[in-house]
Amino acid sequence: MPLKNDHGDLIAIGTEGMIVSVHGYGQSYMVEFAKPLGAPAMAEPHEVGLQ
């Protein structure tokens, strides 16, 4: 299921972003995406693939 960013836009699965903060020992992550522009989204560990 795609993520929804803080502005309500859908972020497609596989879209690359940068983790900008980690909450509660890895319970969730705030991820910043370049497209759509300035689109932060909260993601759970199963929604993040690290490279």
Explain this structure to me?
This protein has 51 residues and is an all-beta fold. Helices cover 0% and strands 43% of the residues. It has strands at residues 3-4, 10-11, 17-23, 28-33, 39-43. It has a three-stranded antiparallel beta sheet, with no helix packed on it. Strands 1-2 form a two-stranded antiparallel sheet. It is globular and about 25 Å long.
List keywords for this structure.
51 residues, three-stranded antiparallel β-sheet, 43% strand, globular
Topology:
Layout: E1 3-4, E2 10-11, E3 17-23, E4 28-33, E5 39-43
Antiparallel strand pairs: 1-2, 3-4, 4-5
In short:
This protein is mainly beta and 51 residues long. Helix content is 0%, strand content 43%. The strands form two sheets. Strands 3-4-5 form a three-stranded antiparallel sheet, with no helix packed on it.
Rg over CA atoms: 10 Å
Q: What helical percentage do the residues reach?
A: under 10%
Q: Could you list the spans in which at least 5 consecutive residues all have pLDDT below 50?
A: none
How much β-strand is present in the residues? 35-45%
Largest sheet: 3 strands, antiparallel
| Strand order within the widest beta sheet | 3-4-5
Mean pLDDT: 86
What is the straight-line distance between the termini?
20 Å
User: What general form does the structure show?
Assistant: globular
Number of helices: 0
Number of DSSP strand runs: 5
